[in-house]
C-alpha cells in the first residue's frame, strides 16, 4: 500500500512544481467558465425557466461542470500509451506493484492537487463574477460527494480501457481525443441531456456517459429528487462494476500481448 | 525585385511539397483525424441548435445566423491550421534548436518560419467548416454576388492572418521563457470560444478587449454581422467586413516585429 501512496504523493508534488503551467491551466479553465456562463446567461435572457431549470440552477451547473472537468483529470490513457510506445512498460511489469493500481494512485494524486490549485481559484472566480455555486441543500451536497467519487472512477475506467488499446495498436493516434469528444457531449458536461431530443435522452439513459457528469451535477442543483439520486448512485455503481470487469478482462489479455512482443 | 519574389515563392513551394510528402507517409493517421475533426465541429454546432430550440434565440441570433457565424470562423481556422500550425509550436522549435538551421540560411528567418510547414491534414478542418458555412449561407439567404465573394475571401484570409499572428505573438514568449505550450492552448481555447458564439453574448468590457486588445472579434463576429445585416455591437465606418483584412495585416506586422525581437534572444539550445 505504501508504494501506491508514494506514487500518489509524488504526483501531487510534481504537479505543484510547475507553477506557470498551473497558472495557465487555470486560466484556460477560467476562459471556459466565462464562455459557458455568459452563453447560458444570453440563452436565458428574458426566459424564466426551461425544462424546470432556472437560470440560477443552470449557471451553478455550468460552473460546477467546468470545475469538475478541471479537477477530475484522468491521464491513465495517455500514460499507458506513452509507456507502451516508449517501451517503459517492460520495466513497469517488473516492479512489485500492480500497474493499474499505480496509474490509479497517480491520477488520484493529480486530482487531489487539482482540488487545491484548480478548484479553489475557479470557485472563487465564479463567486466573485457570477454567484457562489452553492448546492441546493445540505442533503444534496452529501449525496453529491459520493456521486462525484463514482464519476471519477467511471471516467478513470473509461480512460484505462481506451489506453489499453495501445497494447495492440501501439499508435493510439487521436482515439483518446475521440473518446473525450464523445464524453463531453454525451455526459452532459457541455449541455445537459434534458435539452436533447427525447429519443436521445432515452438512448443516453442506457449508456454510461451521463452518469459521469450529469448525475452528480443534477443532484447538486436539485434537478433530481433525493430518492432519484439514490437510484442514480446505484446505476453509477453498476456501471463501475461493468467497466471494471471489462477493464480487468482486457488488461489480462494486454499483459499477454506485451509478453509476445518481447524486448 | 521580381527575381527575389520568384525565388521566395520557389522556396515556399519546395517546403510545402516536402511537408505534404512527409504526411502522406502515414495514411492511417490521416484517416483517424478524418473521423475526429468533423465529429467535434458538427457536435459543436449541434449543441447550438439544441440551445436555440429550447431558448428560441441566442442573444438575438437565430440558428441559421449562428451556423453562418460558426462556419465563417471555422473557414479561417481551417486555413490557419493548414498554413500556420507551426505558430503553435514555437516553444518546441526553440528547445530543439530548429532555428539554428534557418539562421544559417541567407534568407529572412520569419519568412522561412512561415513557409516552413504546410499541414496538409488541416484540409480535414476545412470540410466541416465548408459544410456548416454553406448550410448557414443557404439558410440566411447569403447573396453570391461578385462583391460578396471577394469580401468573403478577404475576410477568411484576413481571419487566418489574425489567428496566425495571435498565435505567433503568444508563442514567441518561448524565446524568453523557453515554454509557451500552455499559453498557446489557452490562446486557442479563447479563440475557439470567442469565434463560435456572437461576441454580444459577452459583457461590454470583454467585447471591447476582444476588439481593440486581442482583435478576435474581427475573425468572424464583425464580418458576420456585416454579411447578415445583424445590428449588433459596434458600428465602424466603411463596412465591418473590410476591417478584417486590414486588422489581419496590422497584427501580422506586429507579430513579425515581436518574433524578430524574440529571435535576438534566441540561444540555440541543446547539444
UniProtKB/TrEMBL annotation, chain A:
In Swiss-Prot or TrEMBL terms, this protein is called: ABC transporter permease
What parts of the sequence cross the membrane?
A: 20-39, 59-76, 122-144, 150-170, 182-209, 229-251
Native species of this protein?
A: Paenibacillus montanisoli
Keyword NADP attached: no
Note the InterPro entries from the entry.
ABC-2_transporter-like
Q: Which UniProt keywords apply?
A: Membrane, Transmembrane, Transmembrane helix
Family annotation (Pfam families): ABC2_membrane_6
Coiled-coil region list? none
TrEMBL record, chain B:
Instruction: Name the residues that span the membrane.
Output: 26-48, 68-88, 109-135, 201-222, 234-259
Keyword Membrane recorded:
yes
InterPro entries named in the record:
ABC-2_transporter-like (IPR010390)
**One Pfam family matching this protein:** ABC2_membrane_6
- What are the record keywords, sorted? Membrane, Transmembrane, Transmembrane helix
In its keyword annotation, does this UniProt entry include Transmembrane? yes
Q: Which PANTHER family match?
A: INTEGRAL MEMBRANE TRANSPORT PROTEIN, SLR0610 PROTEIN-RELATED
Provide the protein name: ABC transporter permease
Q: Which organism is it from?
A: Paenibacillus montanisoli
Amino acid at each position: 500500500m505504501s508504494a501506491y501512496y508514494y506514487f500518489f504523493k509524488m504526483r501531487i508534488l510534481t504537479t505543484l512544481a510547475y507553477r506557470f503551467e498551473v497558472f495557465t491551466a487555470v486560466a484556460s479553465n477560467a476562459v471556459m467558465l466565462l464562455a459557458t456562463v455568459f452563453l447560458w446567461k444570453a440563452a436565458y435572457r428574458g426566459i424564466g425557466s426551461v425544462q424546470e431549470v432556472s437560470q440560477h440552477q443552470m449557471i451553478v451547473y455550468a460552473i460546477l461542470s467546468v470545475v469538475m472537468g478541471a479537477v477530475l483529470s484522468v491521464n491513465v490513457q495517455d500514460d499507458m500509451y506513452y509507456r507502451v510506445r516508449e517501451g517503459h512498460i517492460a520495466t513497469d511489469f517488473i516492479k512489485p506493484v500492480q500497474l493499474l493500481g499505480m496509474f490509479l494512485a497517480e491520477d488520484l494524486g493529480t486530482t487531489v492537487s487539482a482540488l487545491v490549485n484548480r478548484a479553489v481559484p475557479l470557485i472563487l472566480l465564479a463567486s466573485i463574477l457570477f454567484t457562489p455555486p452553492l448546492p441546493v441543500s445540505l442533503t444534496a451536497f452529501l449525496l453529491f460527494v459520493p456521486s462525484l467519487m463514482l464519476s471519477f472512477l467511471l471516467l478513470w475506467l473509461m480512460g484505462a480501457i481506451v489506453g489499453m488499446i495501445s497494447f495492440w495498436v501501439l499508435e493510439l493516434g487521436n482515439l483518446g481525443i475521440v473518446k473525450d469528444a464523445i464524453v463531453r457531449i454525451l455526459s452532459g458536461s457541455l449541455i445537459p441531456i434534458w435539452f436533447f431530443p427525447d429519443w436521445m435522452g432515452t438512448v443516453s439513459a442506457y449508456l454510461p456517459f451521463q452518469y459521469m457528469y450529469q448525475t452528480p451535477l443534477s443532484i447538486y442543483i436539485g434537478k433530481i429528487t433525493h430518492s432519484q439520486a439514490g437510484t442514480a448512485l446505484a446505476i453509477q455503481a453498476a456501471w463501475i462494476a461493468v467497466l471494471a470487469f471489462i477493464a480487468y478482462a482486457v488488461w489480462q489479455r494486454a499483459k499477454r500481448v506485451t509478453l509476445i512482443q518481447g524486448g | 525585385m521580381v527575381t527575389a519574389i520568384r525565388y521566395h515563392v520557389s522556396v515556399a513551394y519546395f517546403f510545402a511539397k516536402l511537408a505534404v510528402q512527409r504526411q502522406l507517409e502515414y495514411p492511417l493517421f490521416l484517416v483517424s483525424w478524418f473521423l475526429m475533426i468533423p465529429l467535434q465541429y458538427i457536435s459543436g454546432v449541434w449543441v447550438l441548435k439544441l440551445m436555440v430550440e429550447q431558448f428560441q434565440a441566442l442573444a438575438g441570433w437565430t440558428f441559421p445566423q449562428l451556423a453562418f457565424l460558426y462556419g465563417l470562423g471555422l473557414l479561417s481556422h481551417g486555413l490557419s491550421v493548414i498554413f500556420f500550425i507551426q505558430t503553435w509550436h514555437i516553444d518546441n522549435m526553440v528547445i530543439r534548436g530548429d532555428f539554428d538551421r534557418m539562421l544559417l540560411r541567407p534568407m529572412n528567418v520569419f519568412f522561412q518560419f512561415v513557409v516552413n510547414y504546410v499541414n496538409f491534414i488541416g484540409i480535414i478542418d476545412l470540410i466541416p467548416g465548408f459544410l456548416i458555412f454553406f448550410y448557414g449561407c443557404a439558410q440566411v439567404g447569403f447573396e453570391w454576388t461578385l462583391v460578396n465573394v471577394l469580401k468573403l475571401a478577404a475576410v477568411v484570409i484576413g481571419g487566418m492572418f489574425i489567428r496566425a499572428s495571435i498565435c505567433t505573438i503568444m508563442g514567441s514568449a518561448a524565446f524568453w521563457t523557453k515554454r509557451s505550450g500552455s499559453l498557446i492552448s489557452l490562446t486557442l481555447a479563447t479563440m475557439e470560444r470567442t469565434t463560435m458564439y456572437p461576441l454580444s453574448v459577452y459583457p461590454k468590457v470583454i467585447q471591447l478587449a476582444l476588439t481593440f486588445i486581442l482583435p478576435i472579434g474581427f475573425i468572424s463576429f464583425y464580418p458576420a454581422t456585416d454579411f447578415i445585416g445583424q445590428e449588433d455591437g459596434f458600428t465602424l465606418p466603411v463596412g465591418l467586413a473590410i476591417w478584417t483584412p486590414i486588422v489581419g495585416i496590422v497584427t501580422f506586422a506586429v507579430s513579425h516585429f515581436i518574433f524578430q525581437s524574440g529571435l535576438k534572444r534566441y540561444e540555440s539550445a541543446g547539444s
